[in-house]
Amino acid sequence: MKFFKNGKNKISNANRFISQVVVLAVIFGFFAGVVGQIFADVYINPWPESLIQSPGDNQDNPLNLPELRRVKRFLGIEQDFEVEKSIAQALPAMVGVYLKKAPGDNDPLSQIYLPKDLLGNGFILTSDGWILTHQFVVQDLAQDKFVVVYKNEKFAIDQVVIDSMSGIAFLKISANNLPVVVLGDSDEITLGQLAVTINFLGEVVVTNIKDSFYQPKNSANDFVLSTEQYSQAVLLENDISDLYLGSPLLNLAGEVTGVINQIDLSQGVVTAVPINQFRPITLGVLKNHFVKRPYLGLVYLDLSKISDSSQPQGALIYKKPLSNTPAADAGLAVGDIIVSVDGQPVDSNDNLTKLIQQYQPGDQVNLDIIRDGKQLAKIVTLSLMPE
């Protein structure tokens, strides 16, 4: 009897073990089925059969497909992100400059300013309505012949101030609480650097700096410079259309480093005025409403640009200074080589024009010159540049 009793216990234990295995198998099978169905719905066939419309379905109930799952993510490189931030910072301050339309009939369509009517672009400098553009945009038009458009609102021009040295035009409109750009430093521009420009139409071009000290050299006369006229510009890759005239040149921080002033695609030349060429006069224009620049009165050659010069750098006075100019009053003469201005060397990075234009009328400047092989010091008092 003991034998049969032990046998029954063994059979009972075996049955219990089998039952436990079956239960666990059912549980794991159920969860495996659920997970498998979820995987199939999401990754293999995301469209339920109930949403698939067959030819016989009722056409009165159009198919409403569910929106695909979307994840907002950045798919570019870090550089693309910087470009996007640069655009976002400057775009709200963009304006368009248009030839003013003559009053027409009652048809409102006749007063719409189209992209083909765009004279050029500008950008807002101050929240009370000072705008920067280039004189090639406004040309020789009287201020009542063109208008500024900002956010589909048309503004008359209250005042125009032109800086003849840089070609920059300051426009004033009657407005307040406007968004403004941030001014950068054009001395930070380097060869090959990425740059961005935008226009009033919302179009964007990402370009590169080809030459940060570009100067035309088509003839020998291009080497003759003046202390009262800038000769250098920023040369860009020539993939910019004429719809960008007057647009800001931006660095990747969204700061304005220049203004597009020349677009000649036939010659492959697109240039911008460096912002440091007009930065020194900006506050004076905003305060006094006219340009105030220092005057020296010299015509010279930049020796750093002449390959066969025995003097590697400096400004060689090329023409006799006119009488009653600061240069003539200081006793400067043809053949003198100016090598420094207040200790700052005259070289390929800072020519004489750039160095002189950082001063104000009435300032006294120390010039180190070489005359007949001997070094001399001259003191010159700068005057106000005549209009």
Automatic annotation (TrEMBL):
It comes from Candidatus Buchananbacteria bacterium RIFCSPHIGHO2_01_FULL_44_11. Belongs to the peptidase S1C family. Keywords: Hydrolase, Protease. GO terms for biological process: proteolysis. This is PDZ domain-containing protein. GO terms for molecular function: serine-type endopeptidase activity. Residues 294-373 form the PDZ domain. It comes from the Bacteria.
